[in-house]
Amino acid sequence: MLREKLLRLEKQRAHSEPLPSGPSPYTSSSFFKTPTATPKPKAKSWNHLFSNAALNQGTSVLKAFARSKSLSPDTISLGTGRPSAEFYPWTSLSMHTAATTSSNSNPTTSPPPQTTMTTTCSITDTSPSAYNLAAALNYGYAAGSPQLVRFVTEHVELVHDPPYADWETCLTAGTTAALDTVLELFCDRGEDTLLVEAHTYAGALDAARARGLDVLGVGMDEEGLVPEELDRRLREWDGARGGGGGKGERKKKKKKPSVLYTIPSGQNPTGATQSAARRRAIYEVAERHDLYIIEDDPYYFLQLGAAPALHQTTPPPTTNDANDTYLTSLPPSYLSLDTSGRVLRLDSASKILAPGLRAGWLTASAPVVAKFLARTELGAGAPSGPSQVLLYKLLDEAWGGHAGLIGWLRSLSVRYRRRRDVLVEACERYLPSVCEWTVPAEGMFLWVRVGGAKWPGAGRPGGCGGEEGGGGGESLSLAIEDRIFTQAQEEGVLVSKGSWFAADDEAKKAGGVNFRLTFAAAPLDALDRAVSRFGAAVRAVYQLD
């Protein structure tokens, strides 16, 4: 099946117009999408959900002029403030990249062998298919270079195949910057409430609050966001929630939330992954309440599989088409379920390639992407040109296209699975019975829950912030959390406090004592030792030794 899709993409490339060239060439996903046998419906309009800023957002006059197509090739430009390439101190780039895994090979749990491939990019290379370095070092179009936009468009079609016609994808300068812009497009300061999981990415919470938004956490279970809780929140919405500012200030009514931010796969911080049925149920709630979904999915491709049996270290068996098997294992994204264009999907290179690239891609309906690009032109401007060169040369040339990328993602998943298994085995070995966790099937996080009620000081007058009879639950949980956090540092291990990710006060009160453990950063041979130290910290605070 994958082979057929790749052949279709190759055929589409062969019959496409030449890639746009020159400085800051205009490009669009519509140039590169394959025609479908059955016409798809168009997305709904989301103008009624746009913020005042988005409704007033126009296109940059200078940027529109700079990419004008009405000029003849022999026109001499005295109108744009772009330095000539002769003033750049770089003339070429040479990149040595790691090899990827072939389609049918069985990746190992160890890093790939130090086989490298070399690609180059030069200012003097002006062939039609080349990614010219002069263009990469100049100001770029906000959507990205034609070469990379073509690749991510094909990737989105290959993996998600959105079920409506007028979807677009564009590059971003990383998910954090993109999310901040998206919140500006859909939310008005002091008027809007952002719906999120009860515990979620702290950067998203910070971005929302910095924009003057109220944040409302929605209940979770082991599969992440609970659709019944989301529906209840929206049905029973109290327009006065959130209120105004200081004392004596009249409360301003808040309108019903219209935007949901969710991390559906390997959720940060809990590691939860929404099942296919769960995603469909949440999408149905969104349809019922006209809710727009921001799907932030950086861990989507880190497939870890089921919980391991103790001491199981062998990778999953290979198949005749391992890449097909890997793609089949991916859960349906919200984008792949989106029949009305109400999903904006954020993908990132940070967790699957390198965070320093500050690059990702965004997919949504064409009018939403147009608003995003118009705002980006007045902010970040465009993703880094050198980062785009690195990505294109790696993905389309060194790795030979989409099959190479999928092979890399498959190999990466096996290596992360090994790390997860080592961490989980260490938890079984070293953490006391007051600790509980659910083994993540995707991502890079393990969420450890510590029983606050089992702490020896719980229920004693003045005990660690608690009150007589176990009252003061929030202050008790925060105090225990802080003691364990501090003790863990003294033991020589750093973990993340669960309270850092709490969406609101209600989540802090109900959340208990939690810690996020990451198995992506530390050396593999240090994970066992790190968990041992964390276990020692919990035992010391709970007086279990």
From TrEMBL:
Q: Where is the composition biased (Low complexity)?
A: 98-108
Molecular function (GO) terms for this protein are: 2-aminoadipate transaminase activity; aromatic-amino-acid transaminase activity; pyridoxal phosphate binding
Q: Where is the Aminotransferase class I/classII large domain?
A: 139-534
Bias kind Polar residues: ranges: 264-276
**Quick one: a GO biological-process term for this protein?**
tyrosine biosynthetic process
Annotated region Disordered: where?
1-39, 98-117, 236-276
SUPFAM superfamilies annotated for this entry? PLP-dependent transferases
Q: Which one Pfam family would you cite for this protein?
A: Aminotran_1_2
The protein's required cofactor(s) are namely:
pyridoxal 5'-phosphate
Gene3D superfamilies linked: Type I PLP-dependent aspartate aminotransferase-like (Major domain)
**UniProt cross-references to InterPro entries, sorted A to Z:** Aminotransferase_I/II_large, Class-I_PLP-dep_aminotransf, PyrdxlP-dep_Trfase, PyrdxlP-dep_Trfase_major
Compositional bias annotation for Basic and acidic residues: 1-16
Any idea which UniProt keywords this protein has? Aminotransferase, Pyridoxal phosphate, Transferase
Q: Does the keyword Cytoplasm apply?
A: no
Q: Which PANTHER family match?
A: AMINOTRANSFERASE, AROMATIC_AMINOADIPATE AMINOTRANSFERASE 1
Indicate the family of this protein: Belongs to the class-I pyridoxal-phosphate-dependent aminotransferase family.
> What's the protein here called?
Aromatic amino acid aminotransferase
* Organism name: Lasiodiplodia theobromae
